[in-house]
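Hi X.,

You mentioned you wanted examples for the new student's onboarding notes, showing what a folding record looks like when two proteins sit in one file. Here is a clean example. The first protein comes first, with its sequence line followed by its structure tokens.
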Amino acid sequence: MKRLSLGIFAATVILALLCAPVWAQRYDDDDDRNIAFGIKVGISLSDFTGDDADAIFDNDELTNLDETTVVGFIHGAYATFTVAGILDIQPEVLFVKKGSETQGDLLNGTGTTTNTVRLRYLEVPILLKLAFLDVDQPVRPFIFAGPYGAFLLDSEAEVETPLGTASVELEEAKDFDWGVTAGAGINFILAGLDLSLEGRWTMGLTTIDDSDEELDIMNSTISALLGIGVRVF
């Protein structure tokens, strides 16, 4: 699944690059406004990293464990401030879902069990974007990186067995997570609209575990995002 995550990330960036010539031909306005506001939507694939990433799913009654990713939907808003032609500062406010999932066979041979952890955050990245062309160009490839802080909204641990499914609130998850975000994409500027397609990787730098043991478990997410905004100034 990690190979699939990287594949989606790479495919998003490649698709954006392939679309660039088409959008460039449709550009019909010398728009040099430097501030944009908009919304972002996308999908994500998340799992856990760290020395104790597998410990959260430890179960002596399971064998043939297979870790998979949790698919999530991302939505939120952003503002882009062009400060030096090819340099943007972009704060965002995003609702994201993270977590991890493990499947295993019951030792008694009665079936398969799926253990899932889901964490929902209000995430606030502050990104520095470096574009390869000035803001007045119709197509702007860019790279970006920056820190993020994330406030936990709710958490859930779910166990699915042949006998049924049960879920409980995960009480030992920290209320705040922080880390770094990096990625690449393409901006399409058309008649005042600020359109973007990007792939990004988000990596937590602190454990999400709030138990007495404070296990080394961190979030890791690959995502593809579409942005639609309006340049206003």
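Then the second protein repeats the pattern, sequence line and then tokens:
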Amino acid sequence: MNSLNMKNRIMRRVYFIYAVKLLMRPTALRFFLFMVLFLSTTAFVSFRNVFFNIPKVADPFPLYQFAVSAFAHAEVPLQLISIALFSIGLFLVSDIVKNWRGTEAFRVNQVRIS
């Protein structure tokens, strides 16, 4: 094995470890879970019909009534998925705000040495 092949094998391992660490961050896991849950709602919801029946966004009270009625008349698994989506969405927004403000929510397992 020449040095170029060895270098390529080592770098492949380094890139793999970097990608695994990147994907195992809490924000990435939350985003992945959010997308899986969101895509699973297509088994319960016809988004085309929802967007067709939704009231005007300019009228907040009918929009609120529509959302409450839709949630109340949904099946139990969809209600649980909706609650999970809402809570994970809040965590994602929190991570984005922390990252934007510079508190670095995306860093994992870093210890300060004083």
